Amino acid sequence: MLLVDNPEYMNCDVLIQEGYDYKAIRAKYEIEPDTLTIIKAIGKGYFSDVHVGMLSMPTQSIAVAVKTSHMKTGAMNAEESEDILRRQRQALKDELSIFAHLQSSSAGGHENVLKLLGAITTVKTSFCILTEYCECGSLDSFLHAKWKNGAFEDELVFDANENEKVWKNQRDSNWADNYQSRRDHGSVTTSDLMWFALQIARAMQFLAAMNVIHRDIAVRNVLLKSDFTLKVADFGLSRKLKENDDNSYYCGQKGTALPIRYIAPESLKSGRFSITSEYWSFGVVVWELFTFAEQQPYSIEFDKYGKSMHFYEFLAKHLSSGHRLSLPEYVPQQIKNLLSRLWLSDPKRRPSFQVCRKIIRQELMESCPNILSNEKASHHASEHSLFHFDDEDVSEEAPKTLDYTQLEFSTSAPPAREIQRTVENDKERRKKVKRRVGYLAVVFIAILTALVFTLLYILFREKEYVTFSTGFTTTAVSPTSENNTFLHSNEEATKLLRESAEQGNAYAQFNLGKIYQEGKGVNQSDEEAVKWYRKSAEQGNGDAQNKLGVMYMLGKGMEEVCRSHLKMLSNGIEKPLTKEMQVCNIILE
């Protein structure tokens, strides 16, 4: 891994290649940009995005979390864009400084603090920080899912006399032995929540020992490994205090966005942050654990009492009046007492992280002691943990400060293989989806083409042909043809045509008029011919209109002047003139 204590990859005297936009902020953590492959986004913060990526190393590739800025500068002018990039670079420099300081101890960090793996600070538009990858994501998402699925199991139950609550471990001798089985089945117990609180207290004590205040500790900024190991992360607001000064504090800059729901009352008023104000924030985090982060701190109280006020004004008034966050019934009494002390108005009276650890550990020894003993052993054997830590909590007398010489470093990172398999599976799934979509598209186009041709054929048939289907077989006849031939006798054809004509069929009326005009199968009758031609012509049949006009002009069927002939000719459809029409026009002229 790209760390100073890993000689295979790190060199404090590493030279940054020429041609980069900047010199490296911290050369010993700088990596080559082409060794990093970003796979997909896994989280979004207020100032940055987090992606999962693969870091290529000489012997293997490992999964990493990549934190990048999500501020876009494309729509800005050159001066504004340069200012944004400058501030981004400074923020990255501040966070890198905190990471480097936390990993400056002989052990290289702490088991419950996120591990820095490297950074890219030499490319102008690709600033990023690389940290270890936690496969289970943020703790708040994990808690939300468990609460939504009803996976919480309260280990506090009433005793046999229904007088007071006791731990299930006190009623069931096998309860403690089966804690891992409960986890495997997706359950989260009261002991698991206390185990989370204990790990966060460990991390916070480590930060305090390194004179670092986090200023943004919350379950959303805590990451979870598959073995229930927690990693405190997101040091964007963290600052280093002066060393060897118990009264040291950091004064926040004006305009800095801060999570006021987690901030101690004295910090709200003065803008000063210290280790004792971190104690208060830790209490809010424990409250989040036991409420499964379902609500933001003080949101219920604000909705009930402070809607007419600005939230900052409400919170300051609410806390100064002595009000505190309400706790669920299933919170153990010792944890309730601890939170009451963490939320004391006097910072000096709040219990230290060392005291918090001791109280939580004692409660865990009552509820599920196997978690403490087995987790210690599993951390030494786990391949999923980058650090192995001898838990001094097992000792009754905890030292004032942590003994970091007991930390060990391991470069194994099995999540990389899992990420590679996931990427390959995603690619294969995408290929299958594309193939299926292609098949469906071909079938759809074929069906659509067949429907279009069928529709065109039907429309063509209706427009060009008339087929009589009233019980006898005929050939299809064109209404403009002068040589209509029927397969059956003229009398039968005339009968069927009359039935159809009387029902209003314009083509049948036209053909019936033609039969009367020519005297085929019936007595020749110009009057009948004119009658049926008129009915067909009135329905817009152009051929009937032409025929009727010719008969009017010749004086057949009725006494009519040429004016009627001209009127019928003007209503005819625009067609090439027939021989009869040409004769009529010559006569009229």
UniProtKB/TrEMBL annotation:
Q: Report if keyword Signal is assigned.
A: no
Q: What is its main location?
A: membrane
What SUPFAM superfamilies has UniProt attached to this entry? HCP-like, Protein kinase-like (PK-like)
Listed Pfam families: PK_Tyr_Ser-Thr, Sel1
Places the protein is found: Membrane
Q: Which SMART domains match?
A: SEL1, TyrKc
User: Which reaction is the catalytic activity of this chain?
Assistant: L-tyrosyl-[protein] + ATP = O-phospho-L-tyrosyl-[protein] + ADP + H(+)
Domain of life the protein comes from: Eukaryota
Q: Where does ATP bind?
A: 67
An MF annotation (GO) of this entry: ATP binding
Residues annotated as domain Protein kinase:
36-365
Keyword annotations for this protein? ATP-binding, Membrane, Nucleotide-binding, Transmembrane, Transmembrane helix
- Higher taxonomy: Eukaryota, Metazoa, Ecdysozoa, Nematoda, Chromadorea
Q: What is the protein name for this chain?
A: Protein kinase domain-containing protein
Task: Give the stretches traversing the membrane.
Answer: 437-460
Q: Does the keyword Translocase apply?
A: no
What GO cellular component entries does it have?
A: plasma membrane; receptor complex
Q: Which GO terms describe its biological process?
A: cell surface receptor protein tyrosine kinase signaling pathway
Q: What is the membrane topology listed in the Swiss-Prot or TrEMBL record?
A: Single-pass membrane protein
Q: Which CDD domains match?
A: PTKc (cd00192)
